[in-house]
Amino acid sequence: MDIFFKTKKLQKICSTKRAAVKELGPKGGKKLMQRLSELSAAITLSDISYLPPPRLHELSGNRKGQFSVDLDHPYRLLFIPANESIPMRDDGGMNKEKIDQIEISEIEDTH
Fold first, then answer.
1. Cut 0.85: pTM above it
2. Is 54 exposed, middle or buried, given 0-12, 13-18 or 19+ CB atoms closer than 10 A?
3. 44-55, pLDDT tens digit by residue?
4. Domains along the chain?
5. 3-state SS, residue 12
6. pLDDT tens digits, residue range 36-46?
7. Per its UniProt record, what Pfam families does this chain match (predicted)?
8. Could you please report the per-residue DSSP string of 22-89?
9. Strand, coil or helix: what is 6?
10. How far apart are CA 77 and CA 109, in angstroms?
């Protein structure tokens, strides 16, 4: 899967374990690197499990259109599809089987 970043700062945090650990601590930095590795190895979002440990899920409310995966509690890695046109299902949700590009938008405590 192709991964893009919303900001250069976010790209820097996600580029090296050292920067990730500096931002999120040892456990959080390690988990961020693991999640990015899983996302880059996947062909589409449907390859990422919705069950723990990554717990990929589509968000709702004011975060509609975004997905998240768990990092070190309470943090989550938030991203949006970066496909030219967002593939949708008949029920209105996004079609994870056709999403093969994402843009990392933030690392956030969404609780």
1. yes
2. buried
3. 999 998 888 899
4. 2-109 (3.30.2310.20)
5. helix
6. 999 999 999 99
7. HigB-like_toxin
8. HHHHHHHHHHHHHHHHHHHH-SSGGGS-SSTTT--EE--GGGTT-EEEE-STTEEEEEEE-SSS--B-
9. coil
10. 9
